[in-house]
Amino acid sequence: MFKKVFEYAGPHKKDLYSATFIVLLSVLMGVLPFVLAYQVISPLIMRETAGSGYVSLRVIGVLICLILQAVLYGWGLNVSHKAAYNTLLRLRTALQKRFESLPLGFIQDKGTGTIKKLFVDDVDSLEVLLAHSLPEGIANLMIPLAIYIAMFFIDWKLALLSLASIPVSFAAMMIMYSVGMKKMGPYYMAGQKMNNTIIEYINGMEVVKVFNKDAESYERFRRDISNYRDCTLGWYKASWPWMAVYSSLLPCTVILTLPLGAWFVLSGYSTLPNLILILCLSLSIGIPLLKSLGFLPTMPQLNYKISALEQVLETAPLKQTEDTFHGKSLDICFDHITFGYEKAQPGPDGKPVVTMDEVITDVSFTVKAGQKTALVGESGSGKSTLAKLLIHYYDPQKGSISIGGQKLTEMSLEALNDLISYVAQDQYLFNTSLLENIRMGRPGATDEEVLQAAEKAQCMEFLEKLPQGIRSMAGDAGKMLSGGQRQRISLARAILKNAPIIVLDEATAYADPENEEKMEAAIAELVKGKTLFVIAHKLPAIMNADQICVIEHGKLAATGTHQELLKTCGEYQKLWRAAQVSAEWKVNTIKEGK
Ligand SMILES: Nc1ncnc2c1ncn2[C@@H]1O[C@H](COP(=O)(O)OP(=O)(O)OP(=O)(O)O)[C@@H](O)[C@H]1O
Ligand SMILES: [Mg+2]
To answer: Which residue, 282, 291, 283, is CA-closest to 246?
Structure first.
């Protein structure tokens, strides 16, 4: 379970071994005073003479042991912490490297909260394992074990008596471990969800206020934090009774040794000095034993966190090469694509299990260079997913996408990005000025070129109304911009980029006629002479497309022109009828002056 983490210790493994050895010596120093105490008590009980020099030497011995115990413990932990934090640093660096190579879609799907939890909380929790559980746990277990062996040599009958409480404690511990492990999955998932919700809640505060969604959003927030509380309490409730049993039984190593041992001595089975020695030794191991096993309750949690980290570290990186684009044309070929979003869910043993929801099944079609290809289909049919596969947000599980015969997996992401401008359904504006937001399309562009692009994308009319115009910050302007206006900023970005292939995921929400007209003008400017792959929600807008692909439940139902599909494709006829009804409804609404 810890092998992987231990690998990340790298050169610091040696420090972890040294720390364990130093703590081991410290535990030994904690046990020695009991042996010295025996040496003082034994002559007293046996009525033997012992000089004051003999006693004071042992008292000084006890003091030295106690001082050494503290010094060695501090030193050991100092070494183990150095090794632990260096290992965490190496682990975080490895995680960051892995994230750089992961599909962007995978990172977005995880959510900011989960990623923060992985990088900060989960990695941090390994500090307990490396700096404490490992050195202290091992050292505190080794010494009692050695003492038990010694006790068997002194008097095996008495040794057996002092072991009596162990099987019951051990059973309680195992039950606690297995019960804890079962509850760990839901507990961990609830933690991730709460993290994501809190971050979403804070990030979305603005939208929440604008749309008066306070109550709704707070309800989700409250539900997720309550769920986390319930899962945590559920885990504790299941573990507590067993924890109580073993932590009260385990240190009671003298529970049988004292009465039965006395009887053994009186009956002549054992000797009194042996009984005293065994009693002293039994007393000495209670504390280390409890300390070593005290780390056990945290193990299910740690195990789960390590699994979550391993899962990310083992996620396949995005398939790409360093190659530039050398395709023969700009024809885009989707070749037998099958894809599903992966989701991590708690498995039967509490560990995360990755499952897959297939949303695209065996889809093949070609987008001809210089033509307009449109994707249509019901909401949730998989249109945006196909667009995201084309911009290499994800690798499909089966099949491949190629441009001019060169597969996406055979070129670098940079090379692909140079070829494609993607205008997404939901626009994200970075928290800099709108000018810089547009300039992101082509970082070397002059202010003049940015302004020209903004003009072509029909942005000037609303930019001019902003207090600082195009230099307004996106954060401040965001509140004043409509969804359609935000999408026009993004279109300006794409116009500036001037890539030969345009992937356009049309937004549905911005339905007011004026905005729609402006959007269409901006799009017309963007797509001049380009290869266009457009996801359309309004069928009339794509009637003139060279090719229309109808997607139904993740499968390609038909391809053809508008006229062909109207004759042959039932799904397209349905979508077309729905579009007619909605257009009629709009006309009527306008006529009635509503
Ligand atoms: N990031 C994701 N993780 C998991 N499932 C997802 C994700 N994105 C989409 N899905 C699911 O995949 C399916 C297809 O979604 P997609 O966004 O491709 O549909 P769409 O055709 O673009 O719909 P719309 O017209 O509403 O935009 C849906 O069932 C959706 O719930
Ligand atoms: Mg979509």
So the answer is: 291
Residue of minimum CA distance from atom 29 in ligand 1: 380
Q: Looking at 111-133, list the stretches that DSSP marks H as alpha helix, in order from N- to C-terminal side.
A: 112-116, 123-127
pTM: 0.73
**CA–CA separation, 554 and 363 (whole Å):** 8
Residues whose beta carbon lies within 6 Å of some atom of ligand 1:
109, 341, 359, 377, 379-385, 425
How many C-beta atoms surround the C-beta of residue 386 within 10 A? 28
Question: Quick check: 397 and 339 in contact, CB under 8 A?
Answer: yes
Residue that the structure tokens 């894809």 belong to: 339
Q: What is the pLDDT of residues 493-525, one digit of tens each?
A: 989 998 999 998 876 555 566 667 777 777 877
C-alpha span between 378 and 579 (Å, rounded): 12
Strand partners, 352: 346
Q: Where are the domains of the chain?
A: 11-314, 359-591
Distance of CA 410 to the CA centre of its chain: 29
| CATH architecture, domain defined by 11-314 | Up-down Bundle (1.20)
Q: Please check whether the two domains, 11-314 and 359-591, share a CATH topology.
A: no
Say which residue, 380 or 5, is predicted with more confidence: 380
- For residues 357, 359, 364, 367, the Cα torsion angle rounded to the nearest 10 degrees is -130
CB-proximal residues (5 Å) to ion ligand 2: 384
Supply the CATH classification number for the domain 359-591: 3.40.50.300
